[in-house]
């Protein structure tokens, strides 16, 4: 799995909660590569409500987690979330166009240290740090479900260190 020629990132799989177009309960993220970052716009609605008019914090965390899944595609690394930390800086308002940005701060063997932000125009709504751990195909065999064909190459072991990337390059 890799970004398309136009920079858009294909869904992890059609029913992915974050980006799968066939998941009626999903967030429907459309992600794309912008230099060394991954970006996506997100408009949340009443299905995602916590306090009246505000998005549920777990939904915000889910969006950032799946955005990091887009960073994995950009990097060509298959990995899973080991740790996700979110600082909520301002309420995420339903009906507003929110912008997600994610990038890889550094890698260390199997460990990928990812960072992301959620903005509403100029307002920082949330920022996240995550530790992802690279995995191979055996990790996903435990579910017994059929893996998407395009994951085969993605799930090949990757030993090489990734170059450091910064959000502003
Ligand atoms: C690829 C497809 C992705 C598509 C969708 C993307 C959507 C977004 C991503 C997700 O939501 S993934 C779903 C949520 N995550 C999981 O289900 C992962 C569940 N956890 C595991 O399966 C295992 O704990 C894990 C694979 C993460 C690690 O197990 P391992 O047995 O492979 O590794 P190990 O426990 O030996 O840890 C490897 C290193 O990472 C470190 N580590 C692991 N978990 C950690 C943690 N939570 N905090 C800090 N360090 C951690 C660990 O200390 C160690 O460091 P050292 O090598 O320095 O000793």
From TrEMBL:
<keyword id="KW-1003">Cell membrane</keyword>
<keyword id="KW-0963">Cytoplasm</keyword>
<dbReference type="InterPro" id="IPR029069">
    <property type="entry name" value="HotDog_dom_sf"/>
</dbReference>
<dbReference type="InterPro" id="IPR052365">
    <property type="entry name" value="THEM4/THEM5_acyl-CoA_thioest"/>
</dbReference>
<keyword id="KW-0966">Cell projection</keyword>
<comment type="similarity">
    <text>Belongs to the THEM4/THEM5 thioesterase family.</text>
</comment>
<keyword id="KW-0443">Lipid metabolism</keyword>
<keyword id="KW-0378">Hydrolase</keyword>
<keyword id="KW-0809">Transit peptide</keyword>
<keyword id="KW-0276">Fatty acid metabolism</keyword>
<keyword id="KW-0053">Apoptosis</keyword>
<keyword id="KW-0472">Membrane</keyword>
<dbReference type="Pfam" id="PF03061">
    <property type="entry name" value="4HBT"/>
</dbReference>
<dbReference type="InterPro" id="IPR006683">
    <property type="entry name" value="Thioestr_dom"/>
</dbReference>
<feature type="domain" description="Thioesterase">
    <location>
        <begin position="53"/>
        <end position="124"/>
    </location>
</feature>
<protein>
    <recommendedName>
        <fullName>Acyl-coenzyme A thioesterase THEM4</fullName>
        <ecNumber>3.1.2.2</ecNumber>
    </recommendedName>
</protein>
């Amino acid at each position: 799995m890799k970004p398309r020629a136009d920079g858009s990132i294909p869904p992890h799989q059609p029913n992915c909660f974050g980006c799968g177009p066939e998941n009626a309960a999903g967030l429907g993220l459309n992600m794309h590569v912008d230099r060394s970052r991954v970006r996506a716009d997100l408009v949340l609605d009443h299905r995602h409500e916590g306090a009246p008019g505000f998005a549920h914090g777990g939904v915000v965390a889910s969006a950032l987690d799946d955005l990091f899944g887009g960073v994995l595609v950009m990097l060509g690394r298959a990995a899973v979330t080991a740790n996700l930390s979110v600082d909520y800086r301002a309420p995420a308002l339903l009906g507003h166009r929110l912008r997600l940005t994610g990038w890889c701060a550094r890698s260390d063997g199997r460990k990928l240290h990812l960072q992301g932000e959620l903005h509403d125009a100029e307002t920082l709504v949330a920022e996240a740090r995550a530790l992802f751990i690279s995995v191979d195909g055996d990790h996903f065999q435990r579910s017994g479900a059929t893996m998407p064909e395009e994951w085969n190459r993605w799930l090949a072991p990757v030993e090489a260190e990734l170059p450091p990337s910064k959000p502003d390059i």
